[in-house]
């Protein structure tokens, strides 16, 4: 990761399963979306496109949290089918669950398309 704070954060994650999940996810993102820049803001590992938030990751003892801003409702059925916990703004992957990379790709593609012309870090308020 280019932002060394993410590497430091990864090294202190208590759950070795969550640490491995995140390392795999970040490597997958870097391979499949090399245009995204990584950043560590608000105690969260994030990926940005042209300075705009695309996806963020946080971790707790038993899960990884993924945030897309307010767009998770668009993926509600797929998140539920994958067996992940969700709210309106985030989803959680349990440390013993596998990562659905197809769903992750759909989320990132959705964000990239929807934020292509946005210039601010977050979506403008409606």
UniProtKB/TrEMBL annotation:
InterPro entries referenced in this protein's UniProt entry, alphabetically: YdhG-like
Gene3D superfamilies: 3.90.1150.200
Domain YdhG-like: 19-110
Pfam families membership: DUF1801 (PF08818)
Name of the protein this chain belongs to: Iron chaperone
Organism: Weissella muntiaci
């Amino acid at each position: 990761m280019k932002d060394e704070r993410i590497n430091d954060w990864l090294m202190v994650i208590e759950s070795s399963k969550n640490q491995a999940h995140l390392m795999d996810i970040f490597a997958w993102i870097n391979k499949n979306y090399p245009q995204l820049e990584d950043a560590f803001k608000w105690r969260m590992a994030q990926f940005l496109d042209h300075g705009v938030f695309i996806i963020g990751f946080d971790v707790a003892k038993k899960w990884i949290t993924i945030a897309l801003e307010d767009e998770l409702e668009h993926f509600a059925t797929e998140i539920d089918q994958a067996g992940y916990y969700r709210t309106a703004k985030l989803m959680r992957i349990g440390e013993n669950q596998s990562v659905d990379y197809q769903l992750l790709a759909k989320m990132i593609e959705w964000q990239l398309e929807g934020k292509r012309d946005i210039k601010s870090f977050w979506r403008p308020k409606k």
